[in-house]
Amino acid sequence: MKRSPLPLLTTLLVLVFFYLPIAVLVANSFNASRFGGTWEGFSLRWYSRLWHEREIWHAFRNTMLVATTATLVSTILGTSAAFALHRYHSRLQRFHYALIYTPLVIPEILMGMSLLLFFVALKIQLGLFTIFLAHVTFCISYVAMVVLARLQDFDFAIVEAAMDLGAGWWTTLWRVLVPLLAPGILAGALLAFTLSIDDFVISFFVAGPGSTTLPIRIYSMIKFGATPLINALSTILLVFTFLVVLLTHHLTREHHS
Amino acid sequence: MAEFLEFVDVSKTFGRLRAVDHVSLGVRRGEFFSLLGPSGCGKTTLLRMLGGFEIPDTGRIYLDGVDITDLPPNRRQVNTIFQNYALFPHLSVWENIAFGLRVAKRPRREIFNEVERMLALIQMEEHAHKKPHQISGGQKQRVAIARALINKPSVLLLDEPLAALDLKLRQRMLIELDLIHDQVGITFLYVTHDQGEAMSLSDRIAVMNQGRIEQLGTPAEVYEAPRSSFVAAFIGDTNFFEGRVAEIINDDYILMQIDGFPSVVCFNDKKMKVNDLVYLSVRPEKFRISRERPQLDGRYNLISANVEDIIYLGSHTKYWVRVDEYRLAISQQHGRFLLDEQPIRWKDDVWIWWHADDGYMLERYSEADELLIQTPPEEVGQNGAVPAPPRAEV
């Protein structure tokens, strides 16, 4: 029986649609040509130019600063939220759950706008601090969801078992809870980290002078048409994000085997 | 009385639910003691209060003369086998068993020796390096036992430890548990809703219902001489009769008059007087059934009946027969080769009889307890999913 070529064709089309633009971008970042149209040989000159761009380094530092602090804070808060949602059943639990879940589905532009208005109303100076606050706000939800998913199949009887066998609170935490939940918490943290690094819309709204992050930097560079540099920068960002996602995936899968 | 393990007037309430209601209970050293009852009767709460996972609202718990009521779980000389074993999934079998000693910071040499000894006891030496998800349910069960026993607890608490296993494995683990209890000589406190498990393992059983202890005694005592209709119906099947004393025959026997049933002779161990209300329980296996009318003396109750249902179970057969307004469960062992006889069939007229000594007068009776008795479908061909009332009205 001859198999229909349709599924194969669809798959190929989807792949092309998804990944061709990215592939072109990556390829062009190694193109010696100043304009993307023609291939003039392999070159790392855009990467070396990038290396010497002071503004890019500045934006990179801002991004990393925001990403690490926002990840740290949102991981702690998000994990606590997940524990609270999982362990304590109150009449308001569904409401709490909805509160945590909502930032995941709210349009980013709405969130950015409302945060901006909020900060302005409170007369908080826009800058890295407001970006940090905004990132924590949406990262908490992601961390909470990832950790909560992990808690669903966590058997709390083993906590009682540990205490029953003589372990105190700290011993139980370090010997049982942390080793078992670390992959879930770390996966949530890495997700928060990538989201923070990539975020443009919300950051754009709440950024102030001198607090340019990488995505905002890339956006402003496009306006001046420095395409090859953006290609190189985007490729680096892509590789970095990809590695983090791979790590997250690895951590989430390991536990299920 | 100063028992080894003692609950004194212990109560625990969750919200509006009184889970444990003023329970006092003593367990002897080295005893295999079971808490038996339906789900929600408070048996697990009682166990968890002993483990330190719940604090009683009122009452005290003493272990070997020491008040342990308010001690946290990690400072009690008791260890628990949890219902789903609660093994640590990230640790190997070996490390699971070693956990208690590691936490206690015992010397490495001692940990090694003790773990190896435990592995030998549960015959799991070749699985020591495996993770819990790589071993079977029965093996997990054994690891949980070893992990608890290595701490040399004064009391081992077992919370429905066999509930997660299939029937065959359950029967094997039953024997293993019994052997382990004999070997280590530790007091076992066993919680179960399965009367078979409790009967076969225990030195003594406390039958619980709605947060209270209905009866405490040896398996034979609670089976043969149930105090209440609940105990009679929960442990095994039984037939209930409600009536009044019509006549005192002599010091030992009375004639009991029952609505919708012939009068019966029964042994008067409760010293009942004429017109007293009597609740009588007669176990299905105390009956005999035959198509031939037997020759019997006056202490037997001989009644003619009609067979409504038959369930052949190999070693024995269960019959449901009708006598006036009553539907009775009868269980008959097959001593002889059954096919040589002409077996009793559906709708046969038969004679049933039991000795007056074999019924037992209950102290307390509740209509609700009749629902605990297993019944076959009310009509042949009817789906068994619908529970039929045990005593059908005509």
Structure overview:
The complex is a heterodimer of chains A (257) and B (394). Chain A has eleven helices and no strands. With 257 residues, chain A is mainly α. In chain A, helix 3 runs parallel beside helix 6 and helix 6 (128-152) packs across helix 8 (169-198). The radius of gyration of chain A is 22 Å and the shape is globular. With 394 residues, chain B is α+β, with helices and mostly antiparallel strands. Chain B has two domains: 5-229, P-loop containing nucleotide triphosphate hydrolases (Rossmann fold), CATH 3.40.50; 230-372, OB fold (Dihydrolipoamide Acetyltransferase, E2P), CATH 2.40.50.100. In chain B, helix 2 crosses helix 3 and helix 3 crosses helix 4 (137-149). The longest helix of chain B has 18 residues, at 167-184. Chain B is elongated and about 75 Å long. The termini of chain B are far apart.
Relevant terms:
heterodimer; A: 257 residues; mainly alpha; MetI-like fold; 2 domains; 0% strand; globular; B: 394 residues; alpha+beta; OB fold (Dihydrolipoamide Acetyltransferase, E2P); five-stranded antiparallel sheet; 8 helices; 34% strand; elongated
Fold topology:
The complex is a heterodimer of chains A (257) and B (394).
Chain A: H1 6-29, H2 45-52, H3 54-87, H4 93-105, H5 108-121, H6 128-152, H7 157-164, H8 169-198, H9 201-206, H10 214-223, H11 227-254
Helix pairs in contact in A: 1-11, 2-11, 3-6, 3-8, 4-6, 6-8, 7-8, 8-11
Chain B: E1 5-14, E2 17-27, E3 32-36, H1 43-51, E4 58-63, E5 66-67, E6 78-81, H2 93-103, H3 108-121, H4 137-149, E7 155-159, H5 167-184, E8 187-192, H6 195-201, E9 204-209, E10 212-217, H7 219-224, H8 229-234, E11 239-248, E12 253-258, E13 261-267, E14 277-282, E15 288-290, E16 300-312, E17 316-323, E18 326-333, E19 349-355, E20 360-362
Parallel strand pairs in B: 3-8, 3-9, 6-7, 7-8
Antiparallel strand pairs in B: 1-2, 1-4, 4-5, 9-10, 11-12, 11-14, 12-13, 14-20, 15-19, 16-17, 16-19, 17-18
Helix pairs in contact in B: 2-3, 2-4, 3-4
